[in-house]
Amino acid sequence: xxxxxxxxxxxxxxFGQKExxxxxxxxxxxxSVFRTYGYQEIQTPAQENLSTLLGKYGEEGDKLLFRxxxxxxxxxxxxxxxxxxxxxxxxxxxxxxTVPFARYVVQHQSEISFPFKRFQIQPVWRADxxxxxxxxxxxxxxxxxxxxxxxxxxxELVQMVDTVFGKLGxxxxxxxxxxxxxxxxxxxxxAPDKVVDITVAIDKLDKIGLEKVKEEMADKGLxxxxxxxxxxxxxxxxxxxxxxxxxxxxxNGGSASGVVSETGLKGLGELEExxxxxxxxxxxxxxxxxxxxxxxxxxxxxAIFEVKALDWEIGSICGGGRYDNLTGIFGLPDLSGVxxxxxxxxxxxxxxxxELFPANLEQATTLLFAVMGADELRYVLPxxxxxxxxxxxxxxxxxxxxxxKQFDYADxxxxxxxxxxxxxxxxxxxxxxxxLQSGEQKAFAVSALQEILAFLS
Amino acid sequence: xxxxxxxxxxxxxxFGQKExxxxxxxxxxxxSVFRTYGYQEIQTPAQENLSTLLGKYGEEGDKLLFRxxxxxxxxxxxxxxxxxxxxxxxxxxxxxxTVPFARYVVQHQSEISFPFKRFQIQPVWRADxxxxxxxxxxxxxxxxxxxxxxxxxxxELVQMVDTVFGKLGxxxxxxxxxxxxxxxxxxxxxAPDKVVDITVAIDKLDKIGLEKVKEEMADKGLxxxxxxxxxxxxxxxxxxxxxxxxxxxxxNGGSASGVVSETGLKGLGELEExxxxxxxxxxxxxxxxxxxxxxxxxxxxxAIFEVKALDWEIGSICGGGRYDNLTGIFGLPDLSGVxxxxxxxxxxxxxxxxELFPANLEQATTLLFAVMGADELRYVLPxxxxxxxxxxxxxxxxxxxxxxKQFDYADxxxxxxxxxxxxxxxxxxxxxxxxLQSGEQKAFAVSALQEILAFLS
Lengths: 457, 457
Description:
The structure is a homodimer. By secondary structure, chain A is an alpha+beta fold. Chain A has helices at 17-36, 50-53, 58-64, 85-88, 98-107, 151-168, 179-188, 195-202, 205-219, 224-234, 240-251, 262-281, 344-353, 374-389, 403-412, 423-428, 449-456; strands at 40-41, 47-49, 67-69, 89-93, 116-125, 137-146, 172-178, 287-289, 300-309, 316-323, 337-342, 367-369, 394-396, 417-419, 430-435, 441-445.
């Protein structure tokens, strides 16, 4: 066998100790918050049948699915006059956690107690063109509740977002809108058939500015009067109560078109209820009714959320919304749900950028026993064992090499304590432990476990 | 879109809340032990280049690799007169954690401090025929140290096995042998070229018995005198010291062939050192030098391990060994390492079989606030928030439906406490909490967080 220069597929990553410690810190924080709200963890397989995945993410999404060649003789009975891919690939890699969740709910509906509160933290794969911050394998952290239309669910998602970022020390603003309100925009703009066009255009307000948004709506055939109505909406400002009152007036026939939008009013009612619940529960982060928030996905039907870091420019780090028919495609209609997804990679970048990772995360080992010879080795083994039993991460250097090399090892691994023992310690029944940061050194009886633990902590 | 009956690919599994809680219990236990020995977690991508994977697992293994169709127009520039698979698939799914680990070490050698102690807990995929207990997607938990030939590393692996199964409450026997000793068998049996044949045969001793093992060795061309030597070895019994002394005599020319095996003696020396270290450190589980232990994999060069549950028949639940040239194929020769792998699915089955999972694992939520109306809902939200802040898993039922339905929900989710509050509680500023197991019910001031926590714990 010839020697290969090793590499990994483009768009994928290895995670070493330091990155893993940081990633686990994020996942563990998120997971611990999900758990205090009674959300249950599930996992689904990396491979799903292509029939489950195809057609769920639009034409572009279908192209970005990683397909798995059928095992065995995939090309054995292929008709070469027909497209080959569908004949040789029946499975694909999970593209997100939402479709597998919908599939899971339908497949396991008889075992599930509704409302079903689940979270899921697993990698997904997309054959996107890799670029900075965009990977072909990345983790999603999704939390959803399905089987209840109550705004209490929306509230809980906001509370979880608030708690997670509070624990991580990231100041965020939570942006909230409602898909029914967006429908209302189109209705009072006199273009109820143009909801998607209007939504797509105003979603870009932040990036391209009002004039370009208006141009785009005009290009899509929205008439001047309609554009004026949308402009009026987007220029609303003030508190939630002020915006709400203004929007209510507009949806009640107060716009230039005079159209009344029942759907829009329903959306405002949901927002009003949610903001009332947030007041009752108490949310620490600022929450904004953001009438320009649209989010791309077409399956949202109620509340939509997006979370932005206040002190670091990176776009949305968390987002989601309510959907009314996610499980319909798998044969279980009319099951309303709401969920959000935490963007682990972006949150990681924010924590690096703002230097918010706890300092001790990277210290894997607390104490290294340096080893001078076979007798010294045997002497420290029971001490190491006792300390590990007490939960301390302890290493025993495996070779009796030069002390310089053992110190270097401690240094490279950022191990804060070292213990070097020779024949005199063995005779005295003690271990010497040195704090490599402060220089403080102390001898302990080998049996003085509590004192050693105190010195190490 | 037509309605599809949802399913997942054969050989794969969904894991619900109960299974996840149990699996996490196993992984968390293993992980916590690895960490007290200073092992560092890494993760590698699910997809590896096929050039990394092919040829590493034998011909059979190559067939069992899941191959991923190239993205874009995979069949666009294909030569149909040549085999198609290599032209349309450049990547495959991880088959085990060992080859990716070797690839990782070589690729990141400049960033690594050797000896490098790593663990990795990730799924692997094999296109095996699915059957009971054999899956196409399953987790491996591997722990390895690379860059040191010291038997201290073997000792640590045994210690970790001992501690993990001690924590899980599973009584095990740790079987140890040495690949060099197996080479010695072949040498003193007069058939140094038949190590693999002899190894493969005696590995089946447990399953097929001595007579069939002898037949198989005869079929492979081992002569009667050689077979007699192997039989003599396999019939050795007694303590480690007794077996060791007997083997030393045989390898020193005391067998019927009179051949001296330096390799065999070296293997015995390693075993002697390891057993001495185990004595010094103290191992709770029984450890047996098992001269019939061979393990299939050809890359082992020193110690080999296998762990069996004493109270549940399921085969090996953990195994591994020392290898001297794992990274050679990727261009980094002469780096010796040793590792073991915990079989999570089998350990799961043992814990189910012996009823060793802690009882409270399945309880996700501690307290359910039942909801009678909008006012009651708002009233309990701050209490729920405070309890969650103290780490208690609390749910607020999202709809003001019939109490019967809310009780059913608590029952199905095995929630042990329920709180039902109406206008009288709001007036009094109290919450009522009932222990659903004991029937005990108590009223607390909403501000009496510590008392509520005590009642719930």
